Amino acid sequence: IKYKKFLIPIGISYYTLEMISYMTDVYRKKYEPEKNFFKLLLFFTYFPKLVEGPISRYDKLSTTLFSENKFDYDNFRKAFVLIGYGFFKKLVIADRAGIFVDTFFSDGYTGLITVVAIVLYTIQIYADFSGCIDIVSGVSELFGVKLAENFRRPFFSTSIQEFWRRWHITLGEWLKDYIF
Predict the structure, then answer these.
(1) Across residues 46-61, what is the average pLDDT?
(2) Please, which of 53, 82, 164, 165 could form a disulfide with 138 given CB 3.0 to 4.6 Å?
(3) Is the peptide bond between 48 and the residue preceding it cis, with omega within 30 degrees of 0?
(4) Residue 66 φ then ψ, to 5°
């Protein structure tokens, strides 16, 4: 059935995780439920973060999402730099590494090239995901909306625990707060 191809990604998306966290926080009385349906709808469907994240908390995002934003040239410039940096990571680093990685996995090489392909695959995943997050954050900053930080230079970590705290920060916090 074709509708499953559409429904499955929606069911496991950041959208669903944000709804769960909102309902849980209201149930735990962390904050009062939003009375304005359209503000709540805006929070859940804020388009830049809908597909890639980061996973936003209502109490943190609502302060910048619902406040009046005035044009600020410095934020506008910084937002475009962040978007450009995101496109560089996505289109130059991740996509170029992907060419090598795809060739390696389709032709079945062995030996030292396997190590190179594994390292490039790791770089590809990071550059692809963090590049998209940079684009999303930059677009949000164009609107005066500040999203949560999602990556903090994970490859400069000194331990595995620190690596996971720096990699997809908002997902780790969400899992800690709502699952564990």
Answers:
(1) 82
(2) 82
(3) no
(4) -100, -5
Neighbours of 15 (CB within 10 A): 19
Rounded Cα distance, 173 and 152, in Å: 14
Nearest partner of 89 among 118, 48, 126, 116, judged by Cα:
126
Distance in angstroms (rounded) separating the CA atoms of residues 23 and 90? 34
Tell me the per-residue pLDDT of 80-133, one tens digit each, with 9 for 90 and over.
999 999 999 999 999 999 998 888 878 777 788 888 888 999 999 999 989 999
Give which of 38, 36, 72 is closest to 146, Cα–Cα: 72
Look up residue 155 and give its DSSP letter. G
pTM score, two decimals?
A: 0.81
Question: What are the respective helix, strand and coil percentages of the chain, to the nearest 5?
Answer: 70, 0, 30
Q: What percentage of residues in the chain have a pLDDT greater than 70?
A: 93
Q: CB 149: neighbour CB atoms within 10 A?
A: 12
Q: Is 108 exposed, middle or buried (0-12, 13-18, 19+ CB in 10 A)?
A: exposed
Rounded Cα gap, residues 173 and 180, in angstroms:
10
Where do we find the tokens 């926080």? 25
